[in-house]
Amino acid sequence: MATTHDTTGSVVPSITPNNNNNNNSNNHTSQQVSRINGTTIVSIPTASADAIASFSWGNYLKTTNAHGAPVSYFRHAPLQEMWGQLTPGMKVEVINTDCSYNSNDPKEKIFWFAYIVRLEGYLALLRYEGCDDDSSMDFWCNLCNKDVHCVGWCGQHGVKLAPPRSIEYRQTDWKSFLVNKLVGAKTLPDSFRQKIQFSLRCSFKKHTLVELIDKFQVSRMRVGKISDIIGGRLRINYENGGGEHFWVHHTSDLIHPAGWCHVTGHDLEATDEYKSEAARISQTKSYPTNIATPDLFRQVPMITSEDEQFKEGQKLEAVDPLEMSRICVATVGKVLKNGYFMLSVDGSSTEDGSDWFCYHSSSRVIFPVNHCKINNIPLSPPLGYEGEFEWERYLTETKSDPVPRELFQIVKENTTNPFSIGMKIEAVDMMAPHLVCVATVANVASNLIRVRFDGWSADFEQWIDCQSTNIYPVGWCELVGYKLEPPKESEQENTESTKKSSKKPMGRKSNKRKRLN
């Protein structure tokens, strides 16, 4: 693999002096600049201006004295493989926000050199060259922003460079100063912009059909059509759903190709015409252009008839899919084909099974009995269970057998969990998956992290796998143009703009157990 950084050459940059007498010149009105606690906060609009919120990650990290989880922790994140090679001290060319150059073109952008002081997710705390130990002009910037470039870019494209007015007096020979600072220094690769675009590609296309979970009754699937794609996340409109839609990552196990329900035996709410067409497609492997092909979806391990499989009635532990703050005692309710099964939460499921949830045996949020005990995780016993819960006693009382330990994926893989308590992330609210929220890693256990949505109580916390595609590095929303939900303030508890009022802590016997928002 080619190195992900370049070193700067020996070409002396062309520097444009500031016109300090022109204090009324336009300073890039398209750019949002503010100063908070002595730090300059720069927010440059991305392609989707609607996705740019007033929330500032840089200021929030400073006030909370927190750190963002590294991009390298997120296997699905754009540029994940190369991001670890970006380091403090690396040089870039960025917008000069303290410039009064009198240009005939008021929209012309003036750049200057800066270096990385600190990395938090996709964000970098930058300092202009020439500031030395003075941090008063430090500013946060998403390194994937379209106005961040490798050293040499301005020279190649005829873009003006000028030092910030506040420090211009500190050097009498800026060219010599820059030669000493820049020659041989690390910078972004010339192809950095192309790498960003390549990493954001998604093979799914708009207007194609898929089978997806019914958010109103999670025990069945429905047919949906992809209406939007942002950062690898799909907005899927339910067919004949009156405008209802559902957001998922394109590798989610909540979506499947046409014919999947027919093959696995999963319940499907669809027209007879669609079911007949889906059955034909699954047999002929001939897919019309409006049908998403199986190769686009998450691939699960193949299960053969010779392999030992989960059996109906066996017991296990699982993250409650409808109350994700708890890990509960569960039962294999029904065995489907190809390694899939329906999971029932003991003591909480409805009698008609309408809140059963489909899992594949390779799922990373199901566990063998005593997994919680071994990893010091609270296990929620069945509703109404009396006395201290012990698996051996419970298996005897229910005349049940546990799912053999060796069948679980987390046992087979022995995953290393890289996250630490207190790290900041951007996380999908799995109970309202159109929302991506400012969040904190509240706990780490085995392959799991417990996500706390900042400003919300522990009732809203969610256990998810450390490899989940529903968590992202700080700055991901800005990178892809998705709206980020800021932390809840106390007076916002019942507002629509943060989390929907319908997302309240669901009791185990809640009549909302069978649906998502």
From TrEMBL:
<feature type="compositionally biased region" description="Polar residues">
    <location>
        <begin position="1"/>
        <end position="17"/>
    </location>
</feature>
<feature type="compositionally biased region" description="Low complexity">
    <location>
        <begin position="18"/>
        <end position="27"/>
    </location>
</feature>
<feature type="region of interest" description="Disordered">
    <location>
        <begin position="487"/>
        <end position="517"/>
    </location>
</feature>
<feature type="repeat" description="MBT">
    <location>
        <begin position="389"/>
        <end position="487"/>
    </location>
</feature>
<dbReference type="GO" id="GO:0005634">
    <property type="term" value="C:nucleus"/>
</dbReference>
<dbReference type="Pfam" id="PF02820">
    <property type="entry name" value="MBT"/>
</dbReference>
<feature type="compositionally biased region" description="Basic and acidic residues">
    <location>
        <begin position="487"/>
        <end position="499"/>
    </location>
</feature>
<feature type="repeat" description="MBT">
    <location>
        <begin position="55"/>
        <end position="164"/>
    </location>
</feature>
<dbReference type="InterPro" id="IPR004092">
    <property type="entry name" value="Mbt"/>
</dbReference>
<feature type="compositionally biased region" description="Basic residues">
    <location>
        <begin position="500"/>
        <end position="517"/>
    </location>
</feature>
<feature type="repeat" description="MBT">
    <location>
        <begin position="275"/>
        <end position="382"/>
    </location>
</feature>
<feature type="region of interest" description="Disordered">
    <location>
        <begin position="1"/>
        <end position="32"/>
    </location>
</feature>
<dbReference type="GO" id="GO:0003682">
    <property type="term" value="F:chromatin binding"/>
</dbReference>
<dbReference type="InterPro" id="IPR050548">
    <property type="entry name" value="PcG_chromatin_remod_factors"/>
</dbReference>
<keyword id="KW-0677">Repeat</keyword>
<feature type="repeat" description="MBT">
    <location>
        <begin position="172"/>
        <end position="271"/>
    </location>
</feature>
<dbReference type="GO" id="GO:0042393">
    <property type="term" value="F:histone binding"/>
</dbReference>
<dbReference type="GO" id="GO:0045892">
    <property type="term" value="P:negative regulation of DNA-templated transcription"/>
</dbReference>
<protein>
    <submittedName>
        <fullName>Uncharacterized protein</fullName>
    </submittedName>
</protein>
